[in-house]
Specification:
16 strands, Rossmann fold, elongated, four-stranded antiparallel sheet
Length: 628
């Protein structure tokens, strides 16, 4: 009997979850039925193999002891041994067959579960990811999927096999001797009582161990991430003391958990041996005083009793694995059942060109974009994408009880550079998130080239925008691949031109393989400034009419910033640009600067007019100037 593990997390709706899993298995329903049949046949053959001991002993071995030269008995003895061997070989072959089939069935089911999960995640809105940590979502693909794999490939087959085996041996025991069967059941009650007492204590301490282990892992992760801070403030000794306390709690919980878990096995073995001895003694007395219960019956029954009790430990282990897997499956299905990002837009972004002064749709890239706007009367109109953006009394909060933006009204004419400044949490990034429709506006309207953005399909709206975020993310692949991510149909020449525009070409050519250099772990083999330059190049190759720069130069040193300033001016030329910046030197040439505080625009104007007002912007700017 295996050691008792910690109590598994239990699913809230087991029946529904099992039904969902079997929907994934239904693609191979025929093979699954073959698996069930093979499990039943294999378990049945094991019972048959044990039964053959009775005629082997009573009909051949016992007579041969008295008459060893009897050729007829010897021939029959050899034949029954051959039959017994064939039975066990067939049982083993069936085990191999259903194990292989279950691996195929489970692998295919997991492939489709992962595919459905990933496809759904790609359709989920940004607020969903705000509510779930990266580790929590990654756990779905690792821990939870792995638990389902173990259940489908091992636990289900083993549990069915254990149940069939127990039923088969129980029937065989009753048919052999109902008196000894009652004795075995009495000893089984003792075994289950011991499992409940000792195993319950073990499970309680395993829960404490997992909680302590989580604290230790979290502390280690936090200290690794903050190692520089620890060393700067010379807190190495304090950190070691804190770790030793957490580690001591883990050691105490683990010691108790494994103590009870490890003594369970010897206790179970000893009880099993005692049970076997009691049954053997009782069976011997019965064999001596019975004309029908012979030596062969006794040996066969002892084999039955040993094989009857063995699967109970296996069933307990498999049930725990199945409950854990079902709980994981429930979490996966909860994500799959999440409401996808809604998109009721019907205005689309198309390539366009002017024919005889009229804007028309075309199937090739012209550098001119248009909004294709179908109307209720069946007519179509085309509006050239200029990049005019207007906020009309917009009020927004990420949660209903907390408003982040209060009655925001602003406009950006095509080609203007609009900058947002203010303290952290003032609502600057929220404004750019609303332009992208990462979040929908409950109050007020946002218009893009005169069209309410709620009417524009989200994918088309976002294709008309390009963002450079404060924390830029690079993907696995080459430098060229990461630049091309801005527009997948861009040629190598267009990507290189975009890199030159962002002044990234020089450092790229100094990399080991130039544009074909493979990037490691989110660009860990590059400096933060170089990562940001690639992000700017990626935005440049997208060639959008509207550009959003969210602290785009925050990770670039002053020298690098001066190098890309000209390239950024070229990139922004002819585009509507929204800039969020803490370095106020980067917003001086803006057409309009919005100063936000607590979600309200408290000042607006160009640099000179705001300086002349000697208000909040003046205080921020002069403060930055003094710091510089």
């Amino acid at each position: 009997m295996p050691p008792m593990k910690r109590a598994p997390a239990k699913p809230k709706n087991m029946g529904k979850t099992v039904g969902r899993i079997f929907q994934y298995l239904s693609a191979h329903l025929g093979l699954f039925l073959v698996v069930i049949a093979a499990i039943i046949a294999s378990s049945g053959l094991q019972v048959v193999g044990s039964y053959l001991l009775k005629p082997t002993i009573d009909n051949f071995i016992t007579p041969l002891v008295s008459d060893p030269q009897n050729q007829e008995l010897m021939s029959g003895f050899v034949m029954i041994l051959v039959r017994m061997a064939l039975v066990y070989i067939a049982s083993g072959a069936l085990v191999w067959l259903y194990a292989r089939l279950m691996i195929f069935i489970s692998t295919d089911a997991l492939f489709r579960i992962r595919s459905d999960l990933f496809r759904k995640m790609e359709k989920l809105p940004i607020p969903f990811f705000d509510k779930h940590t990266h580790g929590e979502l990654m756990s779905l693909y690792t821990n939870d999927v792995d638990a389902i794999r173990d259940m489908l490939s091992n636990s289900i087959a083993n549990l069915i096999s254990a149940v069939v085996t127990v039923v088969g041996y129980f029937v065989a025991m009753v048919m052999t001797s109902w008196i000894l069967t009652l004795l075995v059941l009495c000893m089984l009650v003792v075994i289950m009582f011991v499992i409940k007492i000792v195993g319950g204590k073990s499970a309680k301490f395993f829960v404490k161990q997992q909680a302590a282990l989580g604290k230790v892992n979290g502390f280690v992760e936090e200290m690794i991430e903050g190692q520089k801070v620890v060393k700067v403030f010379c807190h190495e000794e304090k950190t070691k003391m804190d770790f030793e306390k957490l580690n001591d709690d883990l050691c105490h919980a683990a010691t108790n958990a494994h103590t009870f878990a490890n003594i369970l096995m010897p206790i179970m073995n000893n009880i099993s041996h005692i049970s076997y001895a009691i049954v053997a003694i009782a069976g011997a007395i019965l064999a001596i005083n019975s004309e029908t219960f012979l030596l062969g019956s006794l040996v066969t029954f002892l084999t039955y009793s040993r094989n009857f009790t063995r699967p109970f430990g296996q069933m307990s282990q498999q049930i725990n694995s199945i409950l854990t897997a079902l709980a994981g499956a429930e979490r996966i299905f909860a994500v799959i059942d999440e409401t996808p990002e809604e998109d009721n837009g019907y205005v689309t972004l198309v390539n366009a060109e002017y024919r005889d002064g009229v804007l028309c749709e075309t199937d090739h890239r012209t550098g001119i974009w248009a909004w294709k706007h179908p109307h209720h009367d069946g007519t179509l109109t085309y509006t050239e994408v200029k990049g005019k953006v207007e906020f009309d009394h917009v009020t927004f909060g990420y949660v209903p009880e907390k408003t982040v933006l209060h009655d925001i009204s602003l406009y950006a004419k095509p080609g203007q550079k609009i900058s947002f400044v203010g303290s952290t949490g003032a609502g600057k990034t929220t404004i750019t998130n609303l332009i992208n429709r990462f979040y929908d506006v409950p109050d007020g309207k946002i218009r893009y080239d005169g069209i309410n953005i709620n009417k524009i399909k989200k994918a088309d709206l976002r294709r008309s925008l390009s963002m450079v975020l404060q924390d830029s993310h690079l993907f696995s692949g080459t430098v060229l691949d990461n630049i091309r991510y801005g527009r997948l149909d861009a040629t190598d020449e267009e990507c290189i031109a975009a890199a030159k525009l962002a002044n990234a070409d020089s450092f790229i050519r100094h990399l080991p393989d130039g544009y074909q250099t493979e990037l490691e772990g989110d660009g860990s083999n590059l400096s933060q400034g170089q990562v940001q330059l690639l992000a700017i190049a990626r935005a440049a190759v997208a060639d959008p009419p509207v550009l959003i720069l969210d602290e785009a130069t925050s990770s670039i040193d002053t020298r690098t910033e001066s190098l890309i300033e000209k390239g950024m001016d070229q990139l922004m030329n002819g585009r509507t640009v929204f800039v969020i910046a803490h370095r106020l030197s980067t917003v001086r040439n803006s057409h309009a600067i919005m100063v936000l505080e607590n979600g309200v625009i408290i000042e607006r104007g160009d640099h000179d007019s705001l300086i002349a007002q000697r208000g909040k912007y003046y205080q921020l700017y002069t403060g930055m100037f003094e710091l510089s």
